[in-house]
Amino acid sequence: MTQYLKSEKITLRALEPEDIELLYRWENNSEVWEVSDTLAPFSKYLLALYIKNSDKDIYESKQLRLMVENSEGRAVGAIDLFDFEPHHSRAGIGILIGEPEDRKNGYATEALKLVLEYCFKRLNLHMVYANIDANNEASIGLFKKFGFELAGTRKDWIRDARGWKDEHLFQLINPED
């Protein structure tokens, strides 16, 4: 039996009400706002509404957020499918490993592997893509490891306190298409 969202190292699971404190901390960490295009803090009220409405399927909401849980059952991150477009058979992917001490432990690699299998074998997507800050070498390396190719660069796309930065668009076409 194929289990799309589970490996020996991690499980990708649906959001639970108990995740609100963790999401609140991660979503309000200004260090990650730049990659998530966030400009203001999230309230616990809004996060609770988001979790409450997360029961809608991806075809209705056009997005899916899954928590990345390690083998001990502790949530270490989240992976998102966004801008799901069934007609064109594509979706964007974003990954966050929430705490610095949980990074570089293979969680993002495992999460991306599982979600790609889910995208291509369960959702039958033709293509997935990721928008990555041109200076984010760790993310670029992760996506390239799975065969994502640079499809283009948006010049001066992201503005931060230091000025303008480029953003890369990486794509992966379903190898079975």
TrEMBL record:
One of its GO terms (molecular function) is acyltransferase activity, transferring groups other than amino-acyl groups. It comes from the Bacteria. Pfam families: Acetyltransf_3. Keywords: Transferase. Residues 10-171 form the N-acetyltransferase domain. Signal peptide: none annotated. This is Acetyltransferase. It comes from Prolixibacter bellariivorans.
